Amino acid sequence: MLNTTMELKRTIRHEIESRQYEVLEELQLLAQPHADASNGLFTTLAIDPELYPAQSLSNYKIDGSPQAPEVVKMVAESVEPRFGFFLSELDRQESAEGHLTEVADSLRQGHNIVLVTNHGDLKDIAYTLAAYYIKLKEFGVEAFHTSLVMSKIISFLGLEGETPTPAADVLKVLCDEQYFTFPRTRSIAESNVAKEVVDYYNYRAKVAMGWQLRRGKTLFAMAASGTTDKPLADYENITFMSGVGSGTAKLMEGKKSLVVPVAIWTEGEQMVFEPHGPREVSGKEEAHKTMRLIAHTLNERVDDRIFVYQYPDFASNVGKVAVENGALKL
Known about the structure:
Blueprint: H1 2-18, H2 20-36, E1 42-44, E2 61-63, H3 69-79, H4 84-97, H5 99-108, E3 112-117, H6 124-138, E4 145-151, E5 157-159, E6 165-166, H7 167-170, E7 177-181, H8 186-189, H9 195-215, E8 218-223, E9 230-232, E10 235-240, H10 246-252, E11 257-265, E12 272-275, H11 284-301, E13 306-308, H12 318-324
Parallel strand pairs: 3-8, 3-11, 4-7, 4-8, 10-13
Antiparallel strand pairs: 1-5, 2-7, 5-6, 9-10, 11-12
């Protein structure tokens, strides 16, 4: 049995190595719409795993070296001039509910803090991690780890410039490690990336994430759906938040982990950044409840838009689903 498993792994590894360029071409194509939608912030990088190691299918994780809070803040503000809003909202939550104190105490006690957001904008999860990192350092929390989970597509995005700077390199100033996965999205499913490649790559990444979370004292950030929130066809004011998969739910329910749900919205002039207190998440249904809480928060804070999280059985009756989620605004 062991020999059979080893042989299967060798076969899959050979498949990945032999088809790497084909897979990278597909990822580059999938990255292009994100670059197009970034208002000139991002450009699509060339296929060059040697120059851009995050692209390599051998790399499901790259290491960084988190810098001083003032450096992280400077980099964040260069990408998002409104970044100070996230910091001021965390200050507000601390004054109102002692939120940062609770998070800081949990980390000091050896817990992981898993920051879970919706996925409105590609950059939102990085802003979330950066804001908490800066504030926790200000609170005097030392020697905690920072981890960020992202789509492999990110390895093909660079900050626009004469010589583009890979997004993955920028994030090294914030993250001890970045984990890359293939999101199980329609675009990936309909691409030429073989399912075996996706499964094996994601398995290796999630094993590595699991090892880090078992160590504890990690500030771990992910957009739980893995795919961006999208308007529903024929309902432009209704945003559908895609479901949490089994693997992601398992990352949320680690024995040492507490989940902090964060509702974030940066589209247009109206911004929202509202976290909820740390809580244990046990099982897939509780992971879904966490995402419904984020949807409910966004519905309370964002005007003229309905956010719906109804998974796994998203009904065709959009109005009924919206009412069940507290989303219908009359």
